[in-house]
Specification:
The complex is a heterodimer of chains A (about 210) and B (about 120).
Chain A lengths: L1 H54 L2 H19 L4 H32 L12 H4 L8 H18 L3 H12 L4 H8 L3 H19 L4
Helix pairs in contact in A: 1-2, 1-3, 2-3, 3-7, 5-8, 6-7, 6-8, 7-8
Chain B lengths: L2 H21 L3 H19 L6 H4 L2 H15 L14 H8 L12 H14 L1
Helix pairs in contact in B: 4-5, 4-6
The chains are: A mainly alpha (about 210), B mainly alpha (about 120).
Chain lengths: ~210, ~120
């Protein structure tokens, strides 16, 4: 009898602690999931804009953002929430670069193939139709300023573009931008300064 | 206006314009971003048991290897492109083992499989 009680005592203790551990772990997972959702919701639109300017293609930009989200969740969910932003933008920056490289290789492969494979561009009359919706003058001015700025940002060299968008648009500090870009803080300052100079020279009074 | 304040004002204005542009994202894009977020968070609850390498079809992997060889051929014709870059870069990307995202979505492998078929014919 004594032995039985002792055995129960021996087995009960770890079982109880395991159950408590599971509950605690589920609570932690739920908190992490909610925190991650809040974080991703807070960055997704700007992340899309950054990817859109880097890739100049909405579908590719959406793919890049989704891949960055997945990678962050799969590999870095357990990191502290303060680390997520630079990590997320590091992943996104790498993904954009990867897609740009693949696009270049695809272009070169397509150049090897017979010309007939290039003739798949279809004209979509609805997508191409001009909008007749009248726009107020102010809105037109804003549209023009946004268009000119985005064209100028899209035309920047990749590293300058990243530094400008991460620092000025996303609001990362120099250290976070360096972490996201995988370079030194000095390089970030240089790329950012050159980006600003280039944009100022190109845009002048337009914006 | 001092150069410093002018710089601040320029930075502020460009940021405002990009914020405005972001706020105008259409409903379809916003919806797709929400879907992307939910898909990513789903991975937290149900992590994938398999890495991408286990999912790569053998035929597609062979197509990538074949393309790499075709593009590397020393007797191959010059690539008609404005970019004068080393084919080593293409080879590096096609065989980049350090890029786990390279084939994750499968769309590239489908393209390389198709392109290898085109080159054969």
């Amino acid at each position: 009898m004594t032995a039985f009680v002792t055995l129960r005592g021996v087995y009960n203790t770890p079982l109880l602690s395991i159950e408590l551990g599971v509950e605690r772990s589920q609570d932690q997972d739920l908190m992490t999931s909610r925190a991650l959702e809040q974080f991703l919701a807070s960055v997704e639109k700007r992340a899309f804009k950054i990817a859109q300017l880097g890739l100049r293609n909405d579908d590719d930009a959406l793919d890049a953002v989704q891949d960055a989200m997945m990678k962050l969740v799969q590999s870095y969910a357990s990191r502290s929430a303060e680390e997520w932003r630079p990590l997320f933008y590091r992943i996104l920056t790498n993904r954009i670069h990867d897609l740009q490289r693949r696009r270049t290789v695809r272009g070169r492969i397509m150049a090897w193939l017979p010309a007939r494979v290039d003739e798949e561009e279809e004209f979509d009359p609805i997508a191409e139709a001009p909008s007749h919706e009248p726009l107020p003058e102010k809105r037109l001015e804003l549209d023009e300023a946004i268009g000119v700025l985005e064209s100028a940002v899209a035309a920047l060299p990749a590293r300058q573009q990243q530094a400008f968008l991460l620092r000025n648009f996303e609001g990362l500090d120099v250290a976070e931008t360096a972490s996201a870009m995988g370079c030194s803080e000095g390089s970030v300052k240089t790329h950012y300064f050159r980006a600003l100079e280039s944009l100022r020279a190109r845009l002048g009074e337009v914006v | 206006m001092s150069p410093e304040s002018e710089k601040d004002s320029f930075e502020k204005r460009t940021r405002e314009l990009l914020d405005e542009s972001t706020a105008r994202l259409d409903g379809r894009t916003q919806s797709r971003l929400t879907q992307a977020r939910h898909t990513a968070l789903d991975r937290l609850e149900r992590p994938s048991r398999f890495g991408w390498r286990t999912l790569v079809p053998a035929g597609a992997a062979a197509a990538v290897a074949m393309l790499a060889v075709l593009m590397w051929r020393p007797d191959a014709p010059a690539v008609p492109t404005a970019h004068v870059e080393s084919p080593v870069e293409d080879l590096e990307l096609l065989t980049d083992a350090e890029a786990p995202d390279f084939a994750e979505a499968g769309e590239d492998l489908e393209f390389y499989e198709w392109a290898a078929g085109e080159m054969e014919t």
